[in-house]
Batch of 2 targets.
Target 1
Amino acid sequence: AMMRVVVLFGLVVGCTARYSGAKHDVGLMGSLGLNPNRPLPAEYTAVGEAWFNQTLDHDDAGSPVLWKQRYQFNETFSKVGGPVFLLLGGEGPASPIWLAADTAIMTYARQVGAAVYQLEHRFYGESQPFEDLTTSHLKYLSTPQALADADNFVRSFVFSKHGANTKVVSFGGSYSGALSAWLRFKYPSTIYAAVSTSSPIVAVEDFVAYQQVVQNSLATANGGQTCVDRIGAVTASIEKATMTEEGLKGLATTYNTCAPIQMTTNEIANLMSTLAGSFDGVVQYNDDNRQFEHPDSPKPPDLTTVCSAVVGGATPQAGYTAAQQLITDFKDQCMDVSYTGMISQMQNTSLQSGVAGGSRQWVWQTCTEFGYFQSSNGSSTTQPFGSLFPADFSVQQCTDIYGTPSAAVSMAIDATNNMYGGADYNGSRVIFVNGDIDPWHALSLPPQQQSSADVTSILIQGTAHCANMYPASSADLPGLTAARTAVAAALARWV
């Protein structure tokens, strides 16, 4: 059932989808080891790991409770008096691969002589303030606390090691891309400049634009309009089938669900969001150079292969089923759409549970800060996934998992936008980079030339989520190469 939780809320999650063979878990950033089959120059493999004594509650000025926060570092390119790059961890374990390969941040570090640190986000990976993830402990999991963690790390550790005048540039992608922009805005005397990639800086309860961008992106594939039309037609027939017990039995057989599909609003919503989520994940990570971690894995499905399957079927249904199989391998894996099963999984507070990899924590953050609920509320002309998983379905999960009332969700989202300004970003010395295939670009800063505050926002044509953070590849589109060059130029100017 993990697949679906991640789909519902988690498609913001991290720049790296866990990927193994034909089955991909969209979202949660995996703990990626170094790949022995892709030897790298020694300077890229010199990654160390250490722990920082971090404050639990930055709002409590009294005797602070401390916990151990993990960080990774690569100082190979560091020069005396040079800058420090701080890569902010997101909603998953901090993977050393970002500091141990020719990723964008390491390429920039080589160019300007920077030391690079990655600070794992509180409550994710091994940076656990408590022995469990009970809801009473999760009250310390919030963006303001995470930003204060980064500020404290820089002031207490980085400045003491590298000097108080060191220029620190924050980096991040996806959720941590938003953190990077917000960190520069909230702590301008600590963070000199920021790079913010694929960053949803606008909190929104009903993220209706998500599926609309998915439709637009699917339409760019070869035969894309037919692909979208066929998905829409099959969705309509599936919705019709959900109205009868007989129809649900048929769907359970067709999609090899792990258990019979219950005739409840929530379970049907779960089914429909799971089916949509398969396509969402393909679009979100379309043709990102994710294989630098797994060069021996087959290339993940992309817009081209998925729409070829949809369009190539003898009937729309045959094409749709073939595409779902290509993406999720449901015939071998079974498709888990149990709503009650998902809720009980998500209520597990153990650090050893399947949801402790990030799902329980991240969904908490969506319920208490961001929303980002990818709903089916758009009209049938703007997205092909029907209308049976409205934003209310996600809000209901906040209540069922954590006891958060729906009114509290709406208030929390408003508070987040008030705190950081939403689309009216008021920081300076920040460069935003997004890809127009990526549905999350709809919540980032719209494209703009360099402003008087030295804020630039680049929208790359034809790339998806966090594309500019990966190692360069011969397959890179011209706009992607240009965006990387623009970031390098900004860094050279700033530091």
Target 2
Amino acid sequence: IPTEMSNCQYLWAIDVSNTNVSGQLVDNINALPSSLSTIRMSGLSFVGRLPSAIASFPDLGALDLSGNMISGPLPTEIGSLNKLYSLKLDRNQITGLPTEIGYLDQLYWLDLDENHIAGSLPSEVGDLTALPSFPVREQKQL
């Protein structure tokens, strides 16, 4: 994604799913304007961790990074996205959730299927009272 995209201050949604965009996720996230309320980048070849810069999108309501190669635990900064209602991270290599996940009280869609989450989930997941279901099936072994 060209770095000039960050100048598009009135852009509220981006969907580059299933295109030829690839590379380090951090580079592509940093190229986006902070005005975004919807980011859809599924089915790409993004590698690396979800960067802490995800917190620079204060109006973000929907984040879809499913079907990439995102690895490691989610950053604690994910908890600052207090408008987030949909988080789709299925089919990645995510290994864990921070306790700050419990701050996302608007979240009603959370998909973590087919990742590498091992061990117990943080008890703060119980604070996500808007969630009607919580799919975390088919966790792959590291």
